UniProtKB/TrEMBL annotation:
Binding annotation for Zn(2+): H491, H495, E514
Region (Disordered): 1-26, 89-121, 729-773
Sites marked Transition state stabilizer: Y576
Entry protein name: Peptidase
Biased composition regions of type Basic and acidic residues, renumbered to the chain: 13-26, 754-763
Length: 1157
């Protein structure tokens, strides 16, 4: 026993004929293995010996053993030879420590490129750690063209993904989540733990007494609980009162992370105590929930663990102690820890007492926790120092750091108590613990973990950066970094109520934790950071639309049966953003007042419990407030929780009869990529259009034809007034149905409209009935009219629950544009018919303030989605050109991203110069925005929400030849000083543009001489890729890049082209040629040709191709492309379409007399 338990009753083993733990006079149990346990609890047989039978049995066993050894030897030789051959190929792809890595060109904390000290195989990603396979592999499905999606650089702020508990280094745990019996559950854990050996041996020893409650007479004769492979149980005893319960056998099911105790008698309705003694390995196990920080020892050749923190979410508590590791199972924890006196040990609750034992070690006893889930149990140990603050109720809120980091915790220490008081006041539910600790840990696996009473952060997410903190003035960088820290702290504090006090019952309801915590970040910070919170919400909504329109579009609530699925569920966009969006939607549907009252009721009614969404809806208003019809809130939101993806709504108007048809369906990006739909592909071209035109068949057929017939003459009527044929209804007829007086903006309900519902699934009985999984209950609204007119603006509201609805609105003039979803109020895309898109685009140019600025942001986002790769790309380009008049920085920044993606997509096209020239006024307006925002620190911080946004703007600014690019000045400074100013990305972009325009000359000679050195400056290597008409320099740079033998490096180089205007085919030809010099095995490995699921980096590398000429170079690298070949087909169609529109419709658009009106 541990020294702290010297006087506790010993755990004992049993008589051979009575396999259970027996009274104290028997010898103590000293079992240390599963085999020993099995042998000790086996009963003695009384059967007479039969030597002949035993001899025959032994002979057969020897024969089988001999055969097995022979087979193993033959297979072993074969596998060894194969591994030697394969290992030689893979070893060539390991990163060479002397080879320079190429930095990312964006100011991002992360990079695509590997560390120069890594020894992992960089391509494809390292094979995940697996136990023996219990789960059959899914059938492999061939990817079709319609399932290929272009990799999207979302621009998500890396710190948010980290703070949201996600991690790129997650282990994929291919283990079933086996639900435990509900007939018996723990009530209390009494844990006595010795961590004195964790530093040297990376082990802990512990005794745990689990108080169990059996809720009824059961037929089960076993107890099953969770225990990971890191745990080795050495002693075990089960008691009910003073009575020892006989144990027949025990089984450790490592593959399922379960431990089974088979009893001699069924459990009764009673209380039990399960005593266990065990050893747990920590720090170096792939599935462990303990994160250790290692420091080198004196000789420098090895290291030792000097501190550790725990992180048990989602299912890692079982790696630290035997337990019922399910979120629905709540119990109280009483923890006592024996540790070195130089360590500060922290847990969920405050310290109750400490003392020294006879061995000079400290024993710390913590107060009992409230009932909580096992994943919230926490322990931290290290040489921490504290910075203590107090909340309004005098609750100590303490920041714990390493001594050298304490000064950088000042902002967190000042902000956290204020935010704590704000949340406690807003929720009107008192925080139940007596203290709250925040630990700035090193080597923490994720950004933060909300353990109740002991929140653990990675030090980079909680502490200020030293270079920012040293500044005497409040800079933009400092303001932005403080905003990041404030978001993380707010998120984790929200979890103290949403997740800790009230916990989701099952991991499938994870949105109840993370959705509310993410929502509260924007709500609680809106007063302090109004512009940042508003813009970040809508920029993340745009990212959500894009990602949920691609190949992965998981539902918010879905079945999660394996640990790997739960790990993957912690996704920044698919969980945190989508959950936040749904919670905000609930708030808007019931009003802020009723939402606030309902949430307070939800927390009070379910405190210390485990809930489902049913409990949430029971606390909220029954009906949603939208339109004239009463709809149940739970039924409305259920579609948004269970459906995969996000919806899109198509509005089609019939202008001669005042008819409107509104249709919904699942949003899919490839539906609007015209190059995927043609006669050669077996798809009827007239069935493709960017709207559902079946309502207006004549107009729909015309648009569909124009979408496919790319060589058709440019439509000069695109920017002309609408045809008179659309005004067949006389004004007298219209006036009979209008109100005589309308002023201001009024909201009209669906009862104000003449509606004729035509439900597609009932109107056409031959059509298959659609599954509810692709239909949403959408709070639809639309607006028309002008705020300057005497009639004002009119807003209609109604529910769109069916596939489509048709109605007549005689008050809507055929010459007036219809704007759906005003103020981007709800999360769905909106597409329009061709004429309405024209009118909205013209209104943006004539008077964009007639459209709310949030709706302008949605028009930019939806315009890119529906128009940019349709048959009308010039309409999208014209829409973007309105940005030269945009005053809203938020709309302008979303426009900047869209402009950059557009220019990048045509980077190798002959039309790119005309495109940049046409959009130069927009880029100039963005340049003025950048200058103007410097006077407002928060507005300037908007540029930094996406860490790549400034780099994109620098590229566009130089491509447009704006004077602010300062090319010549940077070249002179580079030659004189030999280094760059503080903003490296701005300066290198200017240098690259200069080199591309001027051909290099003496600058190129200097770069070439520097590349010949043993150590190469990565920035110079990047600049080398900018020089044109220098084959020797291009070949040298390509050889250096390819020598790194890493797909992520190649992809980064090709995508980090600093000059958007000047596509360098010469360097790309040299790079692909250098890759072609690799062995065929290396090339197949590089492109994941033989993989069942190709590496994302391999796919991203292929999609960095920009022209059909370059595509032909790549195609010739391999004789066959396997599953990756479909991506080459996709690229061929895309690039061929770009060639056609560049010489066709876009060329005619740019050469027309007045393309910009």
């Amino acid at each position: 026993d541990l020294s702290m338990h010297r006087h506790s009753p010993p755990l004992t083993r049993v008589d051979e004929g009575h396999p259970c733990l027996t009274p104290d006079e028997k010898p103590p149990c000293t079992l240390h293995s599963e085999q020993a346990l099995s042998e000790a609890f086996s009963s003695i047989s009384t059967r007479r010996k039969d030597h002949c039978r035993r001899f025959i049995l032994l002979f057969l066993c020897l024969c089988i053993l001999t055969l097995a050894i022979t087979i193993a030897f033959v297979l072993g030789r074969y596998v060894t030879e194969w591994q030697k051959t394969k290992g030689k190929e893979e070893e060539q792809w390991r990163v060479n420590q002397t080879t320079p890595s190429l930095p990312s060109l964006s100011p991002s904390p992360s990079t695509l490129l590997p560390s120069t000290t890594s020894t992992r195989r960089p391509l494809p990603p390292t094979t995940p750690y697996h136990y023996a396979r219990l789960i059959p592999l899914a059938a492999v499905k061939n990817t079709t063209l319609d399932e290929v999606f272009v990799p999207f650089a979302s621009g998500e702020d890396e710190d948010w993904a980290v703070a949201s508990h996600s991690s790129d280094m997650r282990m994929q745990r291919d283990t079933f989540l086996v639900p435990l019996s509900t007939s018996i559950s723990p009530v209390q854990y009494d844990i006595h733990m010795d961590i004195t050996r964790f530093s040297d041996e990376r082990q802990i020893t512990a005794n745990v007494s689990i108080h169990l409650m059996s809720y009824g007479n059961s037929t089960d004769e076993e107890i099953v609980f969770h225990a990971g492979p890191e745990i080795r149980i050495s002693r075990i005893r089960l008691k009910s009162g003073d009575h020892n319960i006989s144990i027949l056998s025990m089984k450790n099911e490592t593959n399922k992370k379960l431990y089974r105790i088979l009893l001699k008698e069924p459990l009764k309705r009673a209380e039990y105590v399960l005593d266990l003694e065990y050893i747990a390995s920590i720090c170096d196990t792939p599935d462990g929930g303990v994160n250790c920080y290692f420091e080198p020892i004196a000789n420098g050749t090895s290291s030792k663990a000097t501190s550790f923190t725990t992180k048990f979410e989602p299912a890692l508590a079982r790696s630290f102690l035997p337990c019922w590791d399910e979120p629905a199972v709540k119990a109280v924890f009483q923890l006592t820890v024996r540790h070195s006196p130089i360590l500060k040990v922290l847990s969920n609750t405050a310290v109750q007492w400490t003392k020294m034992d006879e061995g000079g070690m400290t024993i710390t006893h913590f107060k009992q926790t409230p009932p909580m889930s096992s994943y919230l149990l926490a322990l931290a140990a290290g040489e921490f120092v504290r910075l203590e603050m107090f909340t309004r109720r005098k609750i100590p809120l303490t920041i714990w750091t390493f001594p050298e980091d304490l000064a950088r915790a000042s902002f967190a220490a000042q902000f956290a108590p204020k935010m704590f008081d704000q949340q406690e006041e807003e929720l009107e539910v008192l925080y139940p613990l007596s203290k709250l600790d925040m630990v700035a840990a090193r080597s923490f696996s994720v950004g933060a973990m909300e353990n109740w009473g002991l929140v653990v952060f990675d030090s980079h997410t909680l502490l200020q950066q030293s270079e920012i903190d040293d500044s005497m003035s409040m800079t933009v960088d400092r303001h932005h970094h403080e905003y990041r820290i404030a978001k993380i702290i707010t998120h984790e504090l929200a979890h103290q109520w949403f997740g800790n006090l009230v916990t989701m019952r099952d991991w499938s309801e994870l949105w109840l934790n993370e959705g509310f915590a993410s929502f509260l970040v924007y709500e609680m910070l809106s007063a302090r950071y109004p512009h940042l919170t508003e813009f970040e919400y809508f920029s993340r909504l745009a990212i959500l639309f894009h990602k949920q329109s691609g190949v992965e579009r998981p539902a918010l609530v879905r079945s999660l049966s394996r640990e790997s699925q739960v790990e993957a569920a912690f996704h920044t966009t698919h969980l945190y953003t989508k959950g936040c969006v749904v919670v905000r939607m609930i708030r808007d549907l019931v009003s802020s007042f009723d939402f606030s009252a309902g949430i307070k009721r939800y927390i009070r009614n379910n405190a210390y419990g485990a809930v489902t969404r049913v409990d949430l809806f029971a606390s909220l208003p029954v009906y949603a407030d939208h339109g004239a019809e009463n709809e149940r809130l739970d039924e409305i939101i259920e579609t948004w929780l269970l459906n995969e993806g996000m919806p899109e709504v198509t509005v089609s108007r019939k202008y001669d009869t005042d008819g409107i048809r509104v249709t919904q369906r699942l949003s899919r990006a490839n539906r609007y990529r015209i190059f995927l739909y043609d006669e050669k592909n077996g798809v009827d071209p007239t069935s493709f259009s960017y709207t559902d035109n079946s309502y207006n068949s004549e107009e729909g057929s015309r648009v569909a034809r124009s979408a496919v017939e790319q060589e058709k003459e440019f439509d000069d009527t695109l920017f002309e007034d609408l045809p008179d044929g659309w005004r067949r209804t006389t004004e007298k007829k219209r006036q009979r149905h209008r109100k005589k007086i309308r002023s201001g903006s009024k909201t009209r309900q669906s009862s104000d409209i003449l509606i004729e519902k035509r439900h597609e699934d009932t109107r056409n009985k031959k059509r298959a009935r659609h599954s509810p999984s692709d239909r949403w209950s959408i709070p639809f609204s639309y607006m028309f009219g002008s705020i300057k007119s005497t009639e004002g603006q009119v807003i209609r509201q109604f529910w769109l629950k069916n596939r489509s609805i048709s109605f007549t609105d005689v008050e809507l003039s055929p010459t007036a544009p219809l704007l759906a979803n005003p103020d981007w109020a709800y999360p769905y895309r909106v597409n329009y018919d061709y004429a309405n898109w024209k009118m909205l685009t013209k209104l943006l140019h004539d008077n964009h303030n007639e459209i709310p600025f949030k709706s302008r942001m949605q028009l930019i986002v939806d315009g890119e989605f529906f128009l940019s790769q349709s048959g009308l790309p010039h309409l999208y380009i014209y829409l973007l050109s309105y940005l030269q008049s945009e005053e809203s920085l938020g709309a302008s920044l979303l426009g900047l991203d869209a402009v950059h993606r557009l220019v990048e997509s045509f980077q190798g096209s002959p039309i790119v110069n005309q495109l940049i020239r046409y959009l130069s006024p927009v880029i100039s307006r963005l340049d003025r925005h950048l200058v103007d925002s410097q006077s407002d620190v928060e507005m300037a911080s908007l540029w930094l929400l996406d860490p790549h946004r400034l780099t994109r703007f620098y590229q566009l600014r130089c491509a447009a030849n704006l004077s602010s690019c300062e090319k010549e000045e940077e070249v002179r400074a580079w030659f004189l000083r030999g280094h760059y100013s503080s903003d490296m990305h701005q300066r290198t972009t200017a240098l690259c543009h200069y080199l591309a325009v001027n051909g290099g000359g003496k600058e190129a000679q200097r770069i070439e001489s520097e590349l010949a050195k043993a150590t190469v400056d990565p920035t110079l290597l990047q600049l080398a890729t900018c020089v044109h008409d220098n084959p020797q320099l291009a070949a040298r740079a390509a050889r250096i890049v390819v020598a790194q033998r890493n797909a992520a490096v190649y992809d980064s180089v090709l995508r980090s082209d600093l000059s958007q205007q000047h596509y360098n085919l010469e360097f790309r030809r040299a790079l692909w040629g250098a890759i072609g010099s690799l062995s065929e095995g290396d090339r197949r490995f590089l492109f994941s040709v033989d993989e069942i699921v190709p590496s994302p980096k391999s796919i991203s590398l292929l999609h960095s191709i920009r022209t059909t000429k370059e595509l032909e170079l790549v195609k010739n690298l391999l004789p066959s492309w396997g599953r990756v070949g479909v991506h080459l087909q996709f690229l061929h169609r895309l690039l061929s379409w770009q060639d056609r529109v560049s010489t066709g419709v876009l060329s005619k658009f740019f050469s027309s007399d007045s393309p910009s009106l």
